[in-house]
User: Fold these one by one.
Assistant:
Number 1:
Amino acid sequence: MQALRLLAHMTQSFSNLNLAPSLARAVAEMGYENMTPIQAQAIPVVLQGRDVMGAAQTGTGKTAAFSLPLLQRMLAHENASTSPARHPVRALVLLPTRELADQVAQQIKLYAKYTELRSAVVFGGMDMKPQTLELKKGVEVLVATPGRLLDHIEAKNAVLNQVEYVVLDEADRMLDIGFLPDLQRILSYLPKQRTTLLFSATFSPEIKRLANSYLQDPITIEVARPNETASTVEQRFYAVNDDDKRRAIKQILQQRGIKQAFVFVNSKLGCARLARSLEREGLVTTALHGDKSQDERLKALEAFKKGEVDLLVATDVAARGLDIKDVPAVFNFDIPFNAEDYVHRIGRTGRAGASGLAVSLVSPSDGRLMADLEKLLKKKVEIEGIEFESDLPDIRKQGRINDGHRAWREDESRDSSASTRDSRSDSRPPRREYSRPSRPADPFFDRPYEAPSEQAKPAWEAAAKSTAPRGLSANIKPKRRVAALFAAQPAPVPVPQEAAQSLETAES
Ligand code: AMP
């Protein structure tokens, strides 16, 4: 495999690309000026018809990286005929989830807006009939999730023998979900002579095997090597008793001026219960767990995106498949059972150059989970105590302070007499029994968190460059605006090295 390594901060204007005027106009309307790194690398290669193996996460601009050159190549077939036969499927884009499929299809529609090329999206959980009608009319670009595409193939609604381009997007996720057999079947229907583009957050051995089987002499493009993914997430760990966790969340939101956040819990029951009690504390909260229907999930998502909901309390399973990124803050109300879920959770914040906050509330019983997490992060984490503002006057009167509890890995033999210091006469807090974090070595922690300036709007909206109005999908919901890909980049922090991957979704 030929490797093409990246100059991460290289900027190149779209005007260097010689895109067809119809595509260039759409790009200009989207408000894009410079290509993102993945675009600068991938577009010229795809224009040459080469196979590509791209390591890039959602939020890097990879949709345009494959869509624009693919559309440019499709323009050779552009025609205004009403005959379906003149509009066979020539490009197929496969994605793991309905939300991603819908999102990518919307983007492609925008890019193809001034062309005669037709595109459509098919995914499960929706009536097949409208999709069938659209397919029967003929579409050049078909975006699909694997399962539903197979249904349409079996029903003879989709014929794939003229496909020239196939894109396997979020391929690692498709494999995680168990789509490999479906992918293999779909790929077996495609002509051997074609261009195949595979995008994945990581190049695991399984992904490499898939690439070896289906890609021909691909160019490898990486915008961030999987183990070096830079992020801008401020990670904080607080020692908090279970009973104080809600208070901790409320206080941190207030202190930081954060309007919206995700709160992750480990169980369905805990999720519903926590959402209810946060509601009682005056926060507009929605619970997302496995018992919620797809419709309820989408409604919750839409309300959150509109800023009508302050907190989305979610289990890991329910949060998968939700197209929500760049949330200002993520709270781990529970430390995840699975250390890798930590990476997925915190990846909801701090994307695309925006700073984000990830707060983990560590209970005394979380020792083993924290040990697993440290193993994954390959570093010791500093656990801080938390002072509750409303307690301070009283506490000081009594000479006590709420120290949370002993840090989970604190040496039990150390002095733990905070609670026996009631008789202290001075008003200074007693020495804490947990280890105060020393000044973090990580340069990111030296920088104070900056709350989003446009507080009225969700932070990802405020950070977004204004763009052409995004049409509402007939299928799902309004979409986020252009990500702040070129926002001033704060100093990157190397987060969860190994596992720092695209942190999104799973097919439902
Ligand atoms: P993606 O990684 O494809 O999901 O793209 C993330 C977001 O970045 C989308 O909202 C795109 O509209 C936006 N985007 C893609 N390319 C660019 C670009 N060159 N300049 C600005 N925004 C872009």
Number 2:
Amino acid sequence: MHPEPQRFVGFDGQFAVNGRHDDQRPAKVDQSKQTFGATMTIAQMTFPLNETTAIPAVGFGTYLVSEDDAPGAIQAAIEIGYRHIDTAAGYHNEKAVGAGIRAGLAATGLSRADLFVTGKPWPGNPAWGDTPKTGAQTKAACQTSLDLMGLDYMDLYLIHAPYGGPERISQWATLVELQKAGKARSIGVSNFNQTHLDEIRDAGLPMPDANQIELHPWSQKPDLLAYMAKAGIAPIAYSSLVPLSTWRAEAGQDSAKTDAMKADGGVFAEMAQKYGVSEAQLLLRWGVQNGYAVLPKSLNPDRMRQNISLSGFEIDADDMAKICAMDRGESVAWATGDPSVAQ
Ligand code: NAP
């Protein structure tokens, strides 16, 4: 059941480069190289990750996309205009994601270089009785994921969570090697907090290009973002749509979303109405306007179109300030609790 009015679909105009938090941009990036401009829509816009790699502002998330659904969903996403596909070994769908990528490229006439693919090795988690991967196992995991997807390289490869404990640094050192070997154009981490990032710095290793974290108006993480901005680590937002009543509402789509959050689901409706957009578009635009690449997942083609159509309106400074005051700090996307608190 998808009740959104069709008028929200395909609403895409010119992107105005305003209302962004300059202090949250990656510090090491030369802003003159930002690949957006007055005539560019958000569907075409990218954020730089390193000297040679830029991530599309809107990507397609594939968590909870089954092996059966992935080929068709990813082909549709590419046809609709998504140029970034985010997956992970832990989503158990890489083979089908690869099939979807090939189908999408064939249907659109695009080439591999036109797409941006993010992968993530599962680091292992001793707290779950899951032995942390060594560096050698992390390297092998990358090749396994590439082989499953039928790819030669990742555009971005991220340690999925800071669960590696004693192996965390060797896992990161391995990603540095994989980048040097051409297996990943950019590398990063996911769900790392300041302590985990300090550990990398203290080991004398290069800092990550990006940290993929849960970011939405109810989980804004200002201290972590300030740290990342200083260190030149680009933020990538996952689970941007947590505040929606439709977010993971189907049976079996577990999370730690609280009852209080579920009761507050409609707070963005009024604001969205003011701009003539859907709540999802407002939440995603908030992320992009702050300089975060976003990764909306949907299996519904109308929503897929809506989620990448974020140009033609801009959240004004008053509303950005109102949203800024809504932070509750909580990360809720993982049913097992906030992964960034791992020791
Ligand atoms: P999301 O993309 O924020 O939200 C997806 C949910 O919202 C689904 O239930 C979807 O249902 C619904 N939805 C999507 N578009 C909608 C719209 N326009 N209107 C109303 N409802 C809409 O959540 P997510 O999957 O948690 O996060 C996005 C991606 O980030 C993931 O797929 C994954 O790639 C990545 N991620 C990474 C981590 C990590 O630890 N690194 C953790 C979580 C997620 P339908 O499918 O039915 O439309």
Number 3:
Amino acid sequence: APAIRLEEYQPPAYRIDTVHLDVQLDPAATTVTATLSLARQAGTKAGTPLVLDGDELTLTGLKLNGEELGSQDFTASADRLEINAPPASPFELTITTQINPGANTKLMGLYRSSGTFCTQCEAEGFRRITYFLDRPDVLAVYTTRLEAPKAECPVLLANGNLIETGGVAGSDRHYAVWHDPFPKPAYLFALVAGDLAQVPDRFTTASGRDVELNIYVEHGKEGLCDWAMDSLKRSMRWDEQVFGREYDLEVFNIVAVSNFNMGAMENKGLNIFNDKYVLADPDTATDQDYANIEAVIAHEYFHNWTGNRITCRDWFQLCLKEGLTVFRDQEFSADMRSRPVKRIADVRLLKSHQFPEDAGPLAHPVRPRIYHEINNFYTATVYEKGAEVVRMLKTLLGDDSFRAGLDLYFDRHDGQATTIEAFLACFEEAAAIDLSRFALWYEQAGTPVVAVQSEYDPERQTFTVKLSQEIPPVPGQKSSKPAVIPLRFGLIGPNGEDMDLSAPEGATVSGDVLVLDKAHQEVTFRDVASRPVLSLLRGFSAPIRLSQELQPDELLFLAAQDNDPFNRWQAVQTLAMQDLVRLSSLIRRGDSGKPSEDVIRVMGSVLTDTSLDAALRAQALTLPSEADVAQEIGKDVDPDAIFAARRLLREAIALSHGSELLPLITSLAPAGAYSPDAEAVGKRALANRALHYYAASGDDDAARLVWDRFVAADNMTDRLAALTLLVHDHMAQEEAALDHYRKRHEASSLAMDKWFMTQATAPGDRTLDKVRALMKHPLYDSSNPNRVRSLLQSFATGNPTQFARADGAGFELVAESVLAIDKRNPQVASRLLTSFRSWRALDPQRSVLAESALLRISSCEDLSRDSRDIVDRTLQ
Ligand code: B3K
Ligand code: ZN
């Protein structure tokens, strides 16, 4: 496939002002008649051919201004329709295509999910429905008429407002006409038709307009929509209050489907969701599920302004909508819950997903300059790092200028398809600031490493901080320019208070933010009465790696004293990380390590510090993951040694603090009915974290307690926490627990996904055979993306010792699965394939085996474009 390059962007030669779609739904032969009003763009020569995109289409009719087109006037193939010499003045094209939604296993375009017709058009799925200028800078007003048998498809939905419904005379069919007055790109088109239950509600906007809200689900699942609906209404209110953004149509519909390639999709007025991000009740959804639903509902809703009203000029600008919308959903969740706890969770995700991406063969800038398959660029870098860049902008500008810049953006670009440059220009203007250097965050791949050294001079009472920055080389980027890095900081005095400081020399400081913008910088603070401890990168104010040589006593001080809750958590993590790296390397050499007393003591004080929020304590007590430690080690990684090191530290903590654990487990149960509010969630998290340590002893008492909690749990969070311990620690009741769980939950696919996942992520060499056996389980379905993710994706990304087994069998299983899935669903296959991205960091024996699995995939000749792109880049 040819490379698409940002520098080669050309505006479209033709405009499409309106689209009338008539869709005659049929499982095997759906007929789509698209009537497009087209016009030459200023600057297009009369007679310039019109080239429309298609993908697996069959053309069955073509008219220009109502006249059948002769075969000499066009050329058509499954993936392209060219009108040789269109009229010079505006004209109308009527295209009829026939498609087979029942055979659409890629889940792009129009397909069926458990009998429901639904669509997914982002990024390039609309061209699988009709021939079109399928690019985000072609904005049109859509009217959609759907027709289907009334009994099979009582529900007919499309974008916009419903303007007409009726029966088709003399038949069992009925129709609905939807009109969306807001011009939109084709990727935001959607339709749904099927027999679904409707859960209705209402919302009154700030200006008093009444909006009808609906969630559509499979019959019988109506009772699982309360939390999603509640999250939607809170999102709508929040966007009004915090960003001044109101909803703009008469109706907002959400449909939950069980077969979906990703999380959800923000189609105008008709969001389509993976049911995993809609359905919840205490018995089947964990606290994490509730938080995810709240965040994804908000994210898709927020796209109405950041993505839909203002969209992207081209797919290189994807972060324009995604980075900004992730930032908005993060802020929403922070306001709904605890801000520091949310920040820690977001940073954990960034470090575990985006940092490895940015350090490996798949690294790319937040705004890529080249792609072969755009669907491979819905990445942690575009989304999560993209959100960090927006967050830095806010940190640098301050709240008021940031809001003024965003207001200007909404005002100036409403109704447009635009670029990162235009976005930044709004902030430059609103804040009278030059962002040309800041823009490097969109251009450069890789995570900057900031090295820090500090020195206190008691004679002169100065404190000097030497900072330097550098991005290690990544594919296609050997050198880099210094970035603009906002570092939130404090100098903490011996009493634990932040010192009052006057402006230092050597850097711009505003408030508590120091701006590092050169390769090397020396910053001197004067009149510093005593040696401070430097707390840097508070709140994780920039997506960088800090290389700061803090002494253990300084880290212990920060862990106990830092006024910034994020950095307190970070100090605990850093202490644990240092110890895990040390222990891993000892174990690797065959020595027996002894965990550090300091770390054990810090964990003990977190356990017992009741002045801290329970959720924060749970976060601090969660050791860096195996993947986090692997990333920190960086090369010649032995996952078995890392696993053993974590196990050792966990046991040592459990042994030293045994007596503190039991009361936490038993006393923290929130009173009353289950609620997903922040306080109750925090209590459950801490109790289950304590249980995790308590179980480490492996003795009978511990096993009994875990089993009892498993059986007695009245919510999924506690049940799954106990099940995970029983299975991952291979306790005697492991199989009994899995059986018990299966019997209880086999009617709920989403609950069973957790059952598959728990087994796929269990350590120990029996897991591989188990996963192979589970692939044949009657409840497993390799055509359903959620099932594949729960079993295979979680094995490949959540089980480092077994995926990277020293005999290569883990790599083989995943390679084999990628090849099998690729034939049906390239997007799911290529996502699974990205689990190999850190293969070069493994020890030589393992990396050779990973490479041969990759070569096996690469040698397959009919690989999809999606998987070909990932395997080529991974091997490069
Ligand atoms: N915009 C969609 C993602 C589409 C992915 C296409 N392969 C969901 C979201 O980010 O809100
Ligand atoms: Zn999004």
Number 4:
Amino acid sequence: SKSEIGLIGLGTMGRALALNIADNGFDVAVFNRTTSKVKEFVDDAGELSQRITPTETLAELVAAITPPRAIILMVPAGKPVDDQIEALRPLLDANDMIIDAGNANFRDTNRRAAETGDLAFLGIGVSGGEDGARYGPSIMGGGPKTSWDRVSHILKAIAADHKGEPCATWMGEEGAGHFVKTVHNGIEYADMQMIAEVYGIMRDGFGLGAATISKVFDRWNAGPLQSYLVEISAAVAAAIDPETEGPMLDAIVDAAGQKGTGRWTAIEAQHLAAPIPAIEAAVVARNLSSQRQIRAKGEELFGAAPHRIPHDILGVDQLEEALIAGKIICYAQGFEMIAKASIEFDWSLPLPDIAKVWRAGCIIRSAMLDDMAKALSEDPHRNLMFAPHFAKKLKASHIALRQVVAQAALHGTATPALSSGLAYFDAMRTARGTANMIQGQRDYFGRHGFEHINGSKDQHGPWAD
Ligand code: NDP
């Protein structure tokens, strides 16, 4: 009998996804560019191989799927996706569906959706890494709702489960799913960066070893900061390097890699004029981390920072509070960006559902997302920081964030994400800011005009002529 769905690209993610699909009782036909990997994969699939049909050509793959077909692409984003679509197109019938499950740029997904003609096209963001793909990812879908509805039973079955609710949600038309996945990754960058920053204060400011730091993260993971990222930070800090027999963390080079989704978030935020400084700071921090030699020269030239922070000035509990504040602030920025995009692209992005789909399966899953989903359900148009639950938390925790940022600055530890998060918070609680000076300058040199506080628009200052 024929398979219900097909999958192309048996790499890390594709293999895991195919096994997940089979594990959930669906027959899946698979193909991979390097065809030898297809047989290897099926041979290793054990009992699940009964549900997996290996194929060696695209024509064979297409023939193995029940029409109207649905085929998942799990190949690297960019040209490989376009190439695969081109190769499939002549083999497919009208209404057959291609589902790009890679980390596509949503603008590519918009374009592909417009180009696929009578084929159906879905762009789905899949988060959770290899384990997520195998045992339940978070899935953010985009494209025609009717196409989503055709395959949603499979996507919901393979997705993570949050207390009975599957983490697979249709976000909107075109590249809406890939857009939401991109912002997810941007938030992920900021969340990771803020954790790295408090790690830095514990290591350099407090002089704590990795094992102690691991215990701190473990403790935090039992409280309001409970999250996958804090959990794995504890595990990373606890691990021992078999070679040096010291902490693994101490043997890892401090230059972070990236595949571009954080950068895309920052670029799109600028297009949208959406202020997401904590996320941008996290992207910048990764770029800066790769400049190792320059940093080493800088240390020679300016002298080594950071310096120890006395225990009576700052403690681990304040770091926890600061991280809570920083986390609320950076998620508020991410959701504000999504709200702006929703208007700009006419997508009606479901903010509460986005918080819900992130509660399980994905890298940024956390206890706090439950409260965020609730707050956004009450009022999706309100900045998350202003929702009563989070306003109360911020009123209590911004003081610690302030102390952490101030002490880090005084002792020479860079905390770019926490600092810009704090600056965002302060700007967002200041009714009278300083852009009056900007407007004065703009009018002075360019006669751009300003609004007077009496309400009259297009006013000019007495400096004209
Ligand atoms: P891998 O590198 O493990 O696998 C890539 C797969 O794509 C291989 O099967 C490879 O085939 C195939 N492929 C590569 N180039 C082409 C091409 N030009 N034409 C056809 N097939 C090609 O990648 P991943 O599984 O890690 O990632 C796949 C997608 O999933 C990417 O978009 C990635 O960004 C996204 N993703 C990855 C996550 C992760 O944690 N790894 C998490 C979420 C999303 P061959 O065997 O012939 O080389």
